[in-house]
Structures are given as C-alpha cells and as structure tokens.
Write a structure and sequence with these properties.
Layout: E1 11-15, E2 21-22, E3 25-26, H1 30-40, E4 43-48, H2 55-64, E5 74-76, H3 77-88, E6 93-97, H4 100-108, E7 112-113, E8 120-123, H5 131-142, E9 146-149, E10 155-156, E11 163-164, H6 166-177, E12 182-183, H7 189-199, E13 206-210, H8 213-222, E14 226-230, E15 249-251, H9 258-261
Parallel strand pairs: 1-4, 1-13, 4-5, 6-7, 6-8, 8-9, 9-12, 13-14, 14-15
Antiparallel strand pairs: 2-3, 10-11
Helix pairs in contact: 3-4, 3-7, 5-6, 7-8
C-alpha cells in the first residue's frame, strides 16, 4: 500500500456535466461509480452550477441516463444560494431572475418572492431572460437591493451550441448598475463548504471530482479537499500545466475511480 499521510476517503463530491454525463448521455463508468459508492455506504453529493432544475428534476434526468442518483444526493448552486441567504438574512425577500430550481430553493428556506423593495436581486440561469425583467432587476439594485448570482459561468452547452449563461447576464446588469454580484456557486469554495455541511462531512476526508480546473479543482482546493480532474470534460490535458495549481490526481474518466469508491481504505 502506498505510504501517505492522507486520511482514508469517507465522502465524495462530484460535478455532474462532464464527469457523469454529457447532456443526457452517460459517461462510461459513471453508473458503476455511483453504484459502488452506494454499495460501500460512502456518503456523496453530485454538485452542479446549473440552477435551472430542482434536485428532483436532476435525479430523474440522471436515472434516465442509467445513473442511480437519489434526489437527496444532489446539491445545486440554487440550493447553496438559498442556504447562504438563509444564513445571512433569514426570512428575507428576493426578486428572482431564474427558473424553478432557484425559486423552489428559496421558497424552501422561507424566502418571499417580490418586486417591491426586496432584500436581494437573485440571478440564476434561465432560457428565458427578458429585457423587462433585467430592467426591473437593474432598477431594484439601484434602489438598494443586494445583488446575488448563483454562479459566474458565462456560457453553457446545448445541443445547438453555446448559450449565454448566468455570468453573461450578470455582466450586463453589473455594467448598468456598477454593482458586482456575490457569486455563491463554483469556483467559490462556499459551494464546497455548504455541500460538506449538508453531508456533515470533513474536508480532510472528502474528495472533489471535476472536469474544470477553473471551477471544480480550484474551489475544492480552496475548501481544503483533495481533488481529481477527469479528462472527459472542459479542461483539456494540455491545459493542466498552464494553471498555477494542480489537482491531487488527473485520470482519464470517472471509470478509473470505481475501485476507490468501493475501497474503505482508499486514499489519493
């Protein structure tokens, strides 16, 4: 056995798109990895910056792709944002630009959706941004509402090509208001910390798996986690050395981690 000062892995965090699936197509080894975690009793969460869908929606999507992830094992940037706002200002109010995933998460922590003097303007991802809603958000921020965004991703993938995402719309609102949002999702390590709290896990015994150096790996590293980069997503192998930080390990795909998922003494 390799000599190491690392503690055995007790909990796992993993990104979804680029690690487990591409759109709705499963990545080979993803189902086996999740099954191995479940059979070995390892706690885990699937993390995503996508705030459009609820955890239930995403669980159904993954199951249709053959990956058996339960609803309670999914943690979205919308859920992390709701948890953050509940900690900051319990029972507050918000004007929301986003979809059901964000609105549901905020309702679940007792937030009120309003266009009248809200505590926050909360921006998430949507496929139906409207000029009217963006204008309303700008005016509310100018009127004193605090500006929060679920994640800074400027673009997102689709079968038709690149789509503008939360970060692009946030830039538009920031330019108009001269106010920068506080981003809760990756690469903010707060996303990792909220996931650890959800699992009641410790950073020293948790590993984060991702496909992006600039979100998954950096946020895991800054939260004190060991990190694994898979080569099935956004960051290409030749790009890894261009970053001033490194993951704990680089593997071809999630399939390479299946043996670790079922090993109670696994370390990296």
């Amino acid at each position: 056995m390799l000599v190491t000062n690392q503690r055995p892995i007790e909990t796992w965090l993993t990104d979804m798109d680029g690690v487990l699936v591409h759109e709705d197509s499963p990545i080979p080894g993803a189902a086996e990895f999740i099954t191995a975690l479940q059979e070995s009793g390892r706690r885990f969460l699937v993390l995503t910056n996508n705030s459009i869908y609820t955890a239930r929606d995403l669980a159904v999507r993954l199951r249709r792709s053959g990956i058996p992830v339960p609803e309670q094992a999914i943690w979205t940037s919308a859920m992390a944002t709701a948890r953050f706002l509940d900690d900051q200002r319990p029972g507050g109010s918000a004007f929301v630009l986003g979809e059901a995933g964000l609105a549901t998460a905020l309702h679940d922590v007792g937030y009120v959706m309003t266009e009248t003097d809200p505590d926050y303007v909360v921006l998430g991802e949507t496929r139906t941004y409207s000029f009217e809603a963006i204008t309303k958000a700008i005016r509310l921020i100018e009127g004193g509402a605090r500006f929060i965004a679920t994640n800074p991703d400027p673009t997102g993938p689709s079968l038709q090509g690149t789509l503008p995402a939360t970060g692009s719309v946030a830039a538009l609102i920031s330019t108009a208001t001269q106010r920068t949002p506080y981003y809760v999702g990756k690469p903010n390590p707060l996303m990792m910390r909220s996931a650890l709290n959800q699992l009641e896990a410790h950073s020293e015994t948790t590993v984060m798996i991702g496909d992006r150096m600039d979100t998954d790996v950096i946020s895991g590293l800054e939260a004190g986690l060991r990190t694994v980069l898979v080569r099935t997503g956004s960051t290409r192998p030749g790009q890894v050395e261009t970053f001033p930080y490194r993951p704990t390990r680089v593997v071809d795909s999630i399939a390479d981690l299946v043996p670790l998922a079922s090993d109670p003494d696994a370390v990296l």
